[in-house]
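Page header: ASSEMBLY MODEL / two components / 654 residues total.
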Amino acid sequence: MTTIKEVAKLAGVSVATVSRALNNSGYVSEATRIKVEAAVKELNFYPNEVARSLYQKKSKLIGLLLPDIANPFFPLMAKGVEDGVNQRGYSLLLGNVEDDEEKGKEYLKIFAQNNIAGVISAVKGDGKDLRNMPFVMLDRVESNRDFAVHSDDYTGGMLAAEAIAKRNPKEIVIMVGPKEVPSSAIRLAGNEKVLKEYQLAYGLFQTPSFKFELAEQTAEQFFEAFPLADSVIASNDVYALAVMKEAIKRGRRIPEEFQIIGYDDMPFSRMMYPGLSTIAQPAYEIGFKGALLLCDILEKGFVANSRIQLPVTLKIRESVREKDEDE
Amino acid sequence: MTTIKEVAKLAGVSVATVSRALNNSGYVSEATRIKVEAAVKELNFYPNEVARSLYQKKSKLIGLLLPDIANPFFPLMAKGVEDGVNQRGYSLLLGNVEDDEEKGKEYLKIFAQNNIAGVISAVKGDGKDLRNMPFVMLDRVESNRDFAVHSDDYTGGMLAAEAIAKRNPKEIVIMVGPKEVPSSAIRLAGNEKVLKEYQLAYGLFQTPSFKFELAEQTAEQFFEAFPLADSVIASNDVYALAVMKEAIKRGRRIPEEFQIIGYDDMPFSRMMYPGLSTIAQPAYEIGFKGALLLCDILEKGFVANSRIQLPVTLKIRESVREKDEDE
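Prediction written out in full:
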């Protein structure tokens, strides 16, 4: 590996001058800077991050905590985080928590051992463990003082309910998201506001978990609880797909006899047939903006908005009926 | 943060003794080890990875290069890698390359700056850039001397072709994987061997890319090229789904008028309706075994098998017909 000494020798300046030029600290003349940059380029020199990290006490690493990676929503969000931190010169240490609280704590320890600069987390319930380092939460907010990027769950809940309300529903069931996911209650409030305005009755089905492996089993339980449901507001796309498949297996025609709307707009939701109607959350953008927010906190020590809320949009596909004619 | 000095003080031993006890190097009496461990626990001390890394020249970080993260095959593989490296005390630096060669090189630079111990890569064509550090390739092999974990593509190709051959195909088309993916040619060889044995004619459609965003457009091109295709051996599950959706849009009944088999067995392939028949690759296991292989290389400097090939299995679901009666 090229050393800073070799760079200094080739540039014909001192090591201290190379260091000042590379760190943008102290005075370096323009002519000298050009010589140093030429030498850096010619020798393909890059400063050792580990040495820099030890000196500065903080590395250029950011830890990312993710829940269930089998849900394509999270890889997409991770991609946004990665592009954001890369743009600002940081790299990403990955931690897939899989809804396991102990595993989350273990990762935070590993992150600390690597002198990470900060954490971005989409994992629920780790708020108190995070509070001794800079952090940004994604897709949820646990306290008013937290830095967070999330999407507009209340509007999302309203849009989903309205899409169903306007499509001649007979028996509506809301699949409520898992209790420990903060957005569940907010989306439900949005659902209920609209259904009450339309004076429509509805049943509630509690989704026990968002785990991918449990989706099919939950879909069966759904039909045991609500065999006559014909219009479903689902808790997310994965669970909506599982319920739609179960409905088809039970001989229900989509959307004539059974219509459903999901939440998230995973890449797959548009690629299957019938295409899944859903509320699109900007997964990539949530990740990307979260990364920039954390970098601002780390570098400027100040941000104008500690909470960024992104808009959601309604995607109508084949899984719901045509709108009522009188509208 | 607790220092090693504080641990030594509480344990009533020297710093050198604490260091020997923690690193398992040199003699430490059992009684002393117990005292040190008690002090470590009481003070919640954990050695600083960055300092250790600088001293040992190598960190406990492993870099992971992944292609398109929108294909759920890769997050699942990443999960396997992560569990494997974690089990051996390493953490994962993430690099999503997105089929961009320059980005791959950039990541390798960042990895080197962080003194990573080694690289695990599922990205095609970066062989020569990797050769100055320990590395393991996943899902492909570029040279006979490489360390690699992959699945049995030839058998996979044969199984897919046999599944179609036995199901009364009228016009068979093989979607050949992108040219730059080494497994494409091997799977095609497996397909062709079987179709020739069955004396069945077939067309070839070259899949230009595995990019998620291009799947729907490619599906349209497929039907322009082969409007009468009724039995398709697809290059992967994502592209199989896109072609199946396009077939349904064109009014073809699945599987009576159009049958298709994919490759990979993504989590979603079973969850849609009709469920996609496919060749299941053990994505998680490929990642997990690849991680253990790299850790063995790093720690033992020797491994018995530099190439691990994992078996594939045929999954029959609703997207193909019943088998011919005479079998």
